[in-house]
Every structure is written in C-alpha cells, then in structure tokens.
C-alpha cells in the first residue's frame, strides 16, 4: 500500500510541475504577443492581451505551485497590483475609445477579475 501512495504522490508532483510550466508558458506567450501588439495600431488587440495577462496572473496567484507559494502579504500585494492595472486599463484611451459591444465584453472580464481579487484579499485578510 505504501508503494501505491508513493506512486500517487510522484504522479501528483509531476502533474503539478506540468501545470506550473504550462501556466508559465502561457504567461510568456501572452507577454510576447503584447510586445508584438505594441508595434501595431490595433488597440483592441492590446486591450485583449492586457486583460489576458491580468487573468493569467490571477490564475497563477490563486493556484500557486507549492514551491512558489507566497505569503499572504505578497498575495494581497499582487491582487492590489492587478486591481491597479485594471483601473489603468479602464482609463486608457484604447478602452475609452473602444466600440460599445467590445468595451462591454472587456468591462465584464475586468469586473469579474476585480471581484475575484477582492475575494482573495478578503480571505487573506480574514485568515491572518
């Protein structure tokens, strides 16, 4: 029975490492796309990539790999950074000048992300 438990633990660790590498790869690719978008005049693509990066940052924060786990203060700080970036996006000319339907879809994603960050901050604050 202990061999089975050990094998299961090894498999879980392998999947956790795979998950971490996959999330990091997605984040790296989003940042490459962001760099490429900067050289174009497509504000809508820039908005999408910036929102995608924030969503990815939040996912990585919400589900940290055990070796990369940050303390509660770091998690709260990262959530506050995400919220500050949400505010910056919502005040950007790209967002302000966007077509109404597209703007609404971005706003929905930003609102969901803001609410999620507030939830994490509340949980971390109450767990102290």
Could you tell me the strand content as a percent range? under 5%
Query: Describe the biggest sheet?
Result: none
Number of helices: 5
- Distance between the amino and carboxyl termini: 38 Å
Order of helices and strands: HHHHH
Rg over alpha carbons: 18 Å
Query: What structural class results from the helix and strand content?
Result: mainly alpha
Q: Indicate the mean pLDDT.
A: 86
Name the overall outline. Answer: globular
Q: Could you give the count of β-strands? A: 0
Low-confidence stretches: none
Number of domains: 1
**What proportion of the residues is helical, as a percent range?**
over 70%
Summarize, please.
The protein has five helices and no strands. It is an all-alpha fold and 128 residues long.
Write structural notes for this entry.
The protein is 85% helix and 0% strand. It has 128 residues and is an all-alpha fold. It has one domain (2-127). Helix 1 (2-38) runs antiparallel to helix 2 (43-62) and helix 3 (72-91) runs antiparallel to helix 5 (100-127). The radius of gyration is 18 Å and the shape is globular. The model has no long low-confidence stretch (mean pLDDT 86).
